[in-house]
UniProtKB/TrEMBL annotation:
Record keywords, A-Z: Hydrolase
InterPro entries the UniProt entry points to: Calcineurin-like_PHP_lpxH, Metallo-depent_PP-like, MPP_YfcE, Phosphodiesterase_MJ0936/Vps29
Gene3D superfamilies noted in UniProt: 3.60.21.10
GO MF annotation: an example: hydrolase activity
Record organism: bioreactor metagenome
Protein name in the entry: Putative metallophosphoesterase MG207
Domain Calcineurin-like phosphoesterase positions: 1-142
CDD domains: MPP_YfcE (cd00841)
Record's keyword annotation contains Hydrolase: yes
Length: 158
């Protein structure tokens, strides 16, 4: 199963549309918040509310139940302090999730902490570590969960 994870496009529509087109073989598209867009622009994406999202009524977090795995989707700004991911991990555990997709930091991250897979795709507006704007692909085959970072270049026409 292929899952696409994006975050923090901060008003830029082009990457959201391009990424849907580029990955038509994906089963799920996740948006971890700070789109700064009304809900209609997020169609196709399972989306949550970021600290800069004032349109509509997006939830603070969502759970995607894939039978063998459960993904917690959240922006994460209320559940992180600097490099500390303990609150995110504990929230995932309390909700019986084994994967967390989050955003907010604008820095790509993929680590396993306490058995919980943490994935931050980076930002589709500007990455704070100076790297190219990015998103993530999670591939799940049984118990095997693989994550990779992909770069998004503005103006790409596939
Ligand atoms: Mn944010």
């Amino acid at each position: 199963m292929k899952i696409v994870v994006v975050s923090d496009n901060h008003g830029r529509l082009e990457p959201l549309k391009d990424i849907l087109m580029l990955h038509q073989d994906a089963e799920v598209f996740i948006h971890c918040g700070d789109s700064e867009m009304p809900a209609e622009y997020l169609s196709g994406y399972v989306s949550v509310k970021g600290n800069n999202d004032f349109y509509g009524d997006l939830p603070e977090y969502r759970i995607i139940d894939l039978n063998e795995h459960r993904i917690l989707v959240t922006h994460g700004h209320r559940m992180m302090f600097l490099d500390n991911r303990e609150m995110l991990v504990n929230k995932a555990k309390s909700l019986n999730c084994d994967i967390v997709c989050f955003g907010h930091t604008h820095v790509y991250e993929n680590r396993i902490q306490d058995g919980i897979v943490l994935v931050n795709p980076g930002s589709l507006s500007r990455n704070r570590d100076g790297s190219q704007t990015s998103y993530a692909i999670i591939t799940i085959e049984g118990n095997n969960i693989k994550t990779k970072r992909l770069e998004y270049k503005f103006g790409c026409k596939f």
